[in-house]
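Run log // design_07
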């Protein structure tokens, strides 16, 4: 049974009509809380608000002012993974995780047999339960060579799944979730390393002109698409160029010494178009 195998967290609940500022207050008061669950009048889950996704939206430029008085339905995951606590653990792992459908950082909601909210858990708790089950399995194995080979194969598969999930989680922490570019932290480390190695490079900062107006007039979906378009065009630059989103509508590009002299002009052409302008494009060369 799933409830007997994994750790379950009793996360706070809200209705989909409550305002986002209520969820913001909950996360402020509970800094270790992973998510808030959205329920209906019968305490049945209808959505999920992961902490990282919610705070990312509010951290965007004017995000808090735009969202704090909106219903939580505007930011919740409308179709979270919902699992009965009485579902067999092995069936759950096989159906949801070993198939690659979900990842270790995914949060899911647990309910009783009637669909009422019981708590939340995540893939890391599932992996921990798998590892605990491994320990029991290894302790119970006989000295039979055949059984030992089977156990080693199972261990290798599960360790591979865990390592792959950890690598994916580490890579995700270095990436901007909207554009897929590097975020500020790895970009700053890259710059520090280049300076420490005294390697010549050019550092270019890009700011999108009229981005606030675009968001105000056409909405944040249009703004997000503009950011993704700029990211795609930056990704078309020559090999060796490193690009990052610093936040909001700000981007940074590192051109190594090996980059061609046409690279900055090519980048300006990539970032501009009939309906998009780059307000400032400044470059500094460090030797």
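design_07 sequence
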């Amino acid at each position: 049974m799933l409830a007997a195998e994994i750790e379950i967290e009793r996360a706070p609940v809200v209705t989909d009509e409550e305002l986002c500022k209520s969820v913001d207050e909950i996360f402020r008061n509970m800094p270790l809380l992973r998510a808030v669950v959205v329920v209906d009048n019968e305490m049945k889950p209808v959505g999920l608000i992961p902490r990282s996704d919610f705070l990312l939206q509010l951290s965007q430029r004017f995000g808090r002012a735009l969202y704090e008085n909106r219903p939580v339905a505007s930011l919740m995951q409308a179709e979270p993974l919902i699992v009965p606590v009485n579902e067999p653990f092995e069936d759950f792992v096989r159906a949801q995780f070993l198939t690659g459908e979900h990842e270790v950082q995914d949060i899911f909601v647990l309910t009783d047999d009637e669909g009422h909210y019981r708590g939340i858990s995540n893939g890391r708790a599932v992996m921990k339960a798998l590892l605990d089950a491994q320990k029991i399995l290894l302790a119970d194995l006989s000295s039979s060579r055949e059984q030992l080979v089977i156990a080693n194969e199972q261990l290798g598969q599960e360790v591979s799944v865990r390592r792959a999930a950890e690598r994916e989680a580490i890579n995700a922490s270095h990436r901007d979730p909207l554009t897929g570019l590097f975020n500020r932290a790895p970009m700053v480390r890259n710059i520090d390393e280049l300076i420490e190695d005294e390697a010549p490079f050019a550092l270019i900062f890009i700011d999108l002109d009229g981005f606030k107006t675009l968001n105000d007039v056409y909405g944040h979906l249009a703004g997000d698409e503009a950011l993704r378009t700029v990211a795609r065009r930056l990704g078309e630059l020559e090999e060796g160029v490193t690009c990052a989103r610093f936040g909001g509508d700000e981007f940074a590009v590192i051109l190594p010494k090996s980059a061609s002299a046409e690279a900055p002009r090519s980048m300006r052409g990539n970032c501009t178009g009939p309906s998009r302008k780059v307000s400032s494009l400044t470059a500094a060369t460090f030797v």
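Confidence is low (pLDDT under 50) at residues 274-287.
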